[in-house]
């Protein structure tokens, strides 16, 4: 039996609660020509997934979408054998098919993983789409330069921690925005940011101003809302901003928070770009991996994962991630990882 989580409520509420998801079961599928059956090991939980659910992207009754790391059980794909590890999109399910005719977002291309290149869990983090997202937004779009002041919101999260380190390696002065003090300490002491301020502080806006005495040249946006409003008056002329995510608005009803933020920033002379990682997969994924993987292996780029255990833990871990109760890249391990 293949257990999976699906939406129990349609339309879903603004934010998930205990009754939003339910477990269902189906027979374990058999692979057809050009397909492989895989068993999920890690389920990646990311803010964009709530947007999928809110917009009705997922078919009714289908497993909730997610990027996954899995192990091949049976293969009818040349070059892929039982026991191989893969990046795929099994979603919140114990088993799934990959290959010809299997629905998936077009840019989430399944691939065989090399455990020698890094922990297999990193294929949905620093050595996967999240790493490429940080690389595309920070390096390709914002182009930080030595002496710039770079601000990264959600700085201890799956994307933010990478984006800030990439800017630091370019010689920029990096200021993080995070929540609890332990996250701020991690960002400074472990990741090498120059400063980090807490958006939970009653003096947050003043704290950020003090941390950016010469203004802000680059802003990597993951949050929106009051965090963006604190950054807005600090932009220098000609500053660059990438909108990676707006997690504070994912429960909003209607409207386009991204357009409103973009207009407000552009009114101050900021060059703003929306970030969609799918635009960079074909052109930059291999080059990104070749550049960043050695930094991760050497410890020059550090990466924290928040790994929860067990299939039943997925909805609670997802809700924690959306409200910032995670610490690092959120994953759930639902089967043993043979590489550990």
UniProtKB/TrEMBL annotation:
Which Gene3D superfamilies does this one have? Medium-chain alcohol dehydrogenases, catalytic domain (3.90.180.10), NAD(P)-binding Rossmann-like Domain (3.40.50.720)
Keyword Metal-binding in record: no
Q: Which InterPro entries match?
A: ADH-like_C, ADH_N_2, ER, GroES-like_sf, MDR_fam, NAD(P)-bd_dom_sf
Q: What are the transmembrane regions?
A: none
Recorded hits in CDD domains, A to Z, give: PGDH (cd05288)
Q: Among its keywords, does the record have Plastid? A: no
SUPFAM superfamilies, per the entry: GroES-like (SSF50129), NAD(P)-binding Rossmann-fold domains (SSF51735)
Task: Please provide the record's keywords in A-Z order.
Answer: Oxidoreductase
Describe the location of the Enoyl reductase (ER) domain by residue ranges. 17-332
* SMART domains tied to this protein: PKS_ER
Q: Which molecular-function annotations from GO does this UniProt entry contain?
A: oxidoreductase activity, acting on the CH-CH group of donors, NAD or NADP as acceptor
Protein name per Swiss-Prot or TrEMBL: NADP-dependent oxidoreductase
Q: What taxonomic ancestry is recorded?
A: Bacteria, Pseudomonadati, Pseudomonadota, Alphaproteobacteria, Caulobacterales
């Amino acid at each position: 039996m293949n257990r999976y989580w699906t939406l129990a409520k349609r339309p879903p509420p603004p934010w998930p609660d205990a009754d939003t998801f339910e477990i269902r079961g189906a027979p374990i599928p058999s692979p057809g020509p050009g397909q492989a059956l895989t068993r999920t090991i890690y389920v990646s939980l990311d803010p964009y997934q709530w947007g999928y659910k809110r917009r009705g992207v997922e078919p009714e009754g289908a497993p909730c979408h997610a990027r996954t790391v899995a192990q091949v059980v049976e293969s009818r794909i040349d070059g892929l054998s039982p026991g191989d590890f893969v990046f795929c999109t099994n979603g919140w399910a114990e088993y799934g098919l990959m290959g010809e005719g299997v629905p998936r977002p077009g840019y989430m291309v399944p691939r065989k993983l090399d455990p020698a290149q890094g922990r297999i869990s990193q294929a949905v983090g620093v050595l996967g789409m999240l790493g490429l997202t940080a690389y595309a937004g920070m390096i390709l779009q914002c182009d930080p330069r030595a002496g710039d002041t770079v601000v990264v919101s959600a700085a201890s999260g799956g994307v933010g921690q990478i984006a800030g380190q990439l800017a630091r390696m370019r010689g920029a002065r990096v200021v993080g925005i995070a929540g609890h003090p332990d996250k701020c300490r991690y960002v400074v002491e472990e990741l090498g940011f120059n400063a980090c301020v807490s958006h939970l502080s009653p003096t947050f806006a003043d704290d950020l101003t003090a941390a950016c005495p010469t203004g802000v040249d680059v802003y990597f946006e993951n949050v929106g809302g009051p965090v963006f409003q604190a950054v807005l008056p600090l932009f220098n002329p000609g500053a660059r901003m990438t909108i990676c995510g707006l997690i504070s608005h994912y429960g909003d009803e209607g409207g386009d928070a991204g357009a409103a933020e973009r207009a407000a920033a552009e009114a101050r002379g900021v060059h703003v770009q929306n970030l969609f990682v799918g635009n960079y997969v074909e052109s930059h994924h291999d080059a990104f991996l070749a550049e960043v993987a050695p930094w991760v292996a050497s410890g020059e780029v550090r990466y924290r994962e928040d790994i929860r255990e067990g299939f039943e833990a997925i909805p609670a871990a997802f809700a924690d991630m959306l409200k910032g109760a995670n610490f690092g890249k959120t994953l759930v391990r639902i089967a043993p990882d043979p590489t550990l």
